[in-house]
Design brief:
Layout lengths: L1 H19 L6 H6 L6 H12 L2 H13 L6 H24 L5 H8 L2 H33 L6 H50 L2 H10 L11 H15 L6 H8 L4 H18 L1 H8 L1 H4 L1 H9 L5 H9 L2 H40 L6 H28 L4 H8 L1 H6 L1 H9 L5 H21 L7 H19 L12
Helix pairs in contact: 1-8, 1-17, 3-8, 3-11, 3-12, 3-17, 4-13, 4-19, 5-10, 5-11, 5-12, 6-7, 7-8, 7-17, 7-18, 7-19, 8-13, 8-17, 8-18, 11-12, 17-18, 21-23, 22-23
Length: about 475
């Protein structure tokens, strides 16, 4: 019966997505919803996209195994990214009237920088989208009592998300995430109310966590620990700023003020609401210690779904799994669309337009093909990560290393440093990659995290390249 309700919910989500497809008439509708969305919808998209599988399943599992300091990348770094993007990037980029964030690198630097950063941005989504698809597989596995394997669940989940994202694009993302955000917030608050009834309230849970030193946050006072701590914050906090999904939500706003405040308020809402899954998962220590010990020794990501399934009535289970599916699907659809748009607009389109002009209708067709192909790639990566036992939280953390190294420095320098030049961007990207990749492969657990070393090298490259060579073109003026 529970599985039947979940299937019904999936059908409703697909229906909303297919209805949204009727609003798509050209590539700009598909990619940015015609730049017409109000504040409440932009806030909902930002919140629902960030509030993904890692927030409900991955972050609580990390908290149970480590402490609050283990969450420095997410939700702390992730929330920082959204607030910084809204305050310092949204208005400048919105005024430029771009289709994708990688368009900025072409306008500010040149086509080569656009292609390299576009590819890097697209690749960074492999881990994030795969984490959502992996979580869908986990949900189907738990709901079917193991009759559906997690690998089979991954295939089912990927097909569902692809179905409504493929046709509706950003309109599907906007309408489905608005609906899903309502389900997420109301559903998880209701579950938290029920769980608090089983624990004797919120205070006993907090006291138990404090007694077990779970609120320890700051690193040890030594260089290695502090660098690792800062690196964890910056990998998500800076590395997820030059991302198409963040830009796409701000760019779909009806004006620049909505772009700014929709992103900032979405980031604040995400940070505050991320505490709810932590409370739910940690409550298992008081409600069912044996269950907690079992899943901490196995797959800790399954603890919260198993707790709900074993200790709450059917109606509450339906609400929880509806909220969980909303969480996963809202993130998966948006993060599936973002890299596909980047590949079609910033990599493939340039090769075609060397020969002839590409109409928006042709771009729309190509983008949909790329969505399909990227879905296959994501599914294969998720199946591979499942075999490697890579956790959802870790998959998301790994996603932003490449954009921190390749895309962040040219973006910030181009917007805020008039002297930033194309040779500086070349050197930033080159030194960042040449520093990061060898360390990532040969010294991944070194004293200095590889992506942090790559980020510092990129900063040095931008400064050196821009001082050695004069800017190849003046700083861009925002479009009217």
């Amino acid at each position: 019966m529970l599985l039947g309700f979940v299937i019904l919910y999936l059908v409703v989500s697909i229906g909303i997505g297919m209805y949204a497809a009727t609003k798509v008439h050209n590539a700009r509708d598909y990619i940015s919803a015609g730049r017409s969305l109000p504040l409440v919808m932009v806030l909902a998209m930002v919140f629902a996209t960030w509030f993904g599988a890692e927030t409900v399943l991955g972050i609580p599992a990390t908290f149970l195994q480590e402490d609050l300091g283990g969450l420095i990348s997410d939700p702390f770094g992730a929330s920082l990214c959204l607030v910084l993007f809204g305050l310092f990037f949204a208005k400048k980029l919105y005024r430029m009237n771009l289709m994708t964030i990688a368009d900025y690198y072409r306008e500010r630097y040149d086509r080569r920088v656009e292609v390299v950063t576009g590819v890097a941005i697209a690749l960074s989504y492999l881990g994030w989208v795969s984490a959502q698809i992996t979580a869908l597989g986990l949900v189907f596995n738990v709901l079917s009592d193991g009759q559906i394997t997690q690998a089979q669940g991954i295939l089912i989940g990927a097909a569902v998300v692809l179905m409504y994202t493929l046709y509706g694009g950003m309109w599907s993302v906007a309408l489905t995430t608005f609906f899903q955000m309502i389900v997420i917030v109301l559903g998880l608050f209701y579950i938290a109310w029920l769980i608090s009834g089983l624990t004797g309230g919120v205070v006993p849970v907090l006291e138990h966590a404090a007694a077990n030193d779970k609120f320890h946050f700051w690193p040890e006072l030594n260089a290695v620990a502090m660098v690792a701590f800062i690196s964890g914050l910056l990998t998500m906090g800076f590395g997820s700023i030059p991302q198409q999904d963040v830009f796409q939500r701000a760019n779909a706003s009806k004006n620049e003020n909505v772009a700014v405040w929709g992103t900032v308020l979405g980031g604040v809402a995400y940070f505050l609401f991320a505490a709810v899954p932590l409370f739910l998962a940690y409550s298992a220590n008081l409600i069912d210690p044996a269950l907690t010990a079992k899943w901490l020794a196995g797959d800790s990501q399954k603890l919260l779904p198993e707790l709900v399934k074993g200790h709450l009535p059917l109606a509450a289970q339906v609400i929880f799994y509806g909220a969980l599916l909303s969480v996963i699907m809202s993130t998966a659809s948006g993060t599936l669309l973002a890299p596909s748009v980047t590949i079609s607009e910033n990599v493939l389109k340039g090769f075609v337009t060397r020969r002839k002009h590409m109409s928006e209708q042709k771009l729309l067709v190509i983008t949909r093909w790329v969505v399909g192909c990227f879905s296959v790639l994501v599914t294969l990566y998720a199946l591979w990560a499942l075999g490697e036992s890579t956790g959802i939280h870790q998959m998301v953390e790994n996603a932003y290393k490449v954009t921190l190294v390749v895309a962040f420095v040219p973006l910030v320098a181009g917007l805020y440093w008039r002297r930033a030049s194309t040779p500086g961007a070349y050197l930033a990207i080159g030194l960042g990659l040449l520093t990061w990749l060898p360390l990532e492969f040969f010294l991944p657990d070194g004293a200095i995290p590889p992506q942090f070393a790559g980020f510092l090298a990129a900063c040095a490259g931008m400064i050196a390249g821009s001082y050695l060579y004069a800017p190849s073109r003046p700083q861009l003026k925002p479009h009217a």
